[in-house]
Amino acid sequence: MLLYSDPVFLQHDTGAHPEKALRLSRVGEYLDQTGLRDKCELGKIEPVSLERLARVHKLEYASEVADFAANHGGYIESDTVCSRASYEVALKASGAVCDAVTRVVGGDDRHALCLVRPPGHHALHASAMGFCLFNNVAVGARVATTELGLDRVLIVDWDVHHGNGTQDAFWEDEQVGFLSIHRSPFYPGTGSQSETGAGKGRGTILNLPTEYGTSRKEFLARFTTGLEDLARRIRPNLILVSAGFDAHRLDPVGSLGLEVEDFALLTETVQKSANDYCGGKIVSVLEGGYNVDVLPLCVETHLQTLAGWQQ
Ligand SMILES: [Zn+2]
Question: pTM of the prediction?
């Protein structure tokens, strides 16, 4: 099990904001207490190259983030903080995912978990959005298809919010499929079932908007059926997960009534598809999850299941 976890991700300083460093410091402490960190191999954290970043983001936007951080920092858009260190930290978040993808595709390990921040799935081609600066999972997927020779990648996003930035990045891309299950109606307002991609990418996107109040059983059933259908169509060589834990019942930002153990079931469902199509290869990337007492438990369950260590 490859784990990308590093104190550098605490340097993205958001102040009094739900997406705060305490999220990851609490997760890190818990992985130490439980001995889980020691069971993993720690991956290398290096900044993503601008060449790799440019496959998802406009480089002028990257410069804008760099300048904003260097000049004063603060809110770069209505919901998103960019502090002095945030540009460098965000480059490392994307860089960690690129390293994880390279190593998993290369066969060093079958699973990697990237505990990075800022999160990424709302970040757009030329702007920050929804706590996100750079789209980490999208940058990783493009490394797989453009540098590592993979024909097909599938991104599975179970964060409670629709992964609009990821959907935009691969809207017309036939090589990268995208499944998102999310609360709807809810922020950011996109992700209806009629959004399925365009051009060569038509039919490679599957949105499962889910109303607040949907039972856990129904949520898991929709996810399982949707994933089986899309995986059959995409036949991925690698699966990436945008693992947000803000669909948990006690999440202060999201919530779709899920319990900690439901994240084990979601993980197992992804594993089943990964075993069917790509030798079990999964790279998982942290997105949301804002209850700092619950997040460590969700991450532990996800990691134990990914690694095959659960009882
Ligand atoms: Zn979210």
Answer: 0.98
